[in-house]
Design a protein that fits this description.
Length: 240
Amino acid sequence: MKTRPLKTLDRVLSKAGLGSRVDARGWITAGRVQVNGQVVRDPDQWIDLKRDRVRLDGKPLQARERVYVLLYKPTGYLTTYRDPKGRPTVYDLIADLGTFVSPVGRLDLDTSGLLLLTNDNQLAERVTNPESHVPKTYLVKASQRLTDEQLQRLRHGVELADGPTRPARVRRVRDSEKYTHLEITLTEGRNRQVRRMIEVLGATVLKLVRVKIGPIRIGTLQIGKWRPLTAAELRVLRGS
């Protein structure tokens, strides 16, 4: 038996591309949202996407045109919609986009590089689901020179607090007098995973840049800028 496609009301509004979940919860509690003709003020009410009819300000929801963005995220920017401390977010960099999109995965405050944003939930789930094995490639500057044996440990997988990592592709880029620069490719996306893997080796990450998701590269895009994904890039991400 097939499961019914259920989502909470705030998520339904957000995934329609109308705004963030924070925005949606505000609209709901303000009484601006109706489900099957009745005002609903509970953002966590479950919605059956095939049966329930949702309206905002009396108008039926209409899914926005699908938008796919590649952003070169700088360090110092959060991948949240708003920050209580007033720190800059990636939404400051795409203010001219004209529609709401959500980050596909995360990059932490001190990590820069390739960030995808979209209002296509199905594509986002495919890219972030570990079972899809979509590779993510990072350039790393480690706080010390790493031996071949240490890099081999990364290739085989290391033990983290939340379990062993999958084997990774690792390439030594270059060594300086004090540091190793390496490229690492993962097929999973745990919180701060690259940093934690390097810490297992007794070193820390001094610089971390995501340069590739699947076959998609930053290329010549300038830091802090964005561009739409190409049709060819979308086909590859969809696996078609």
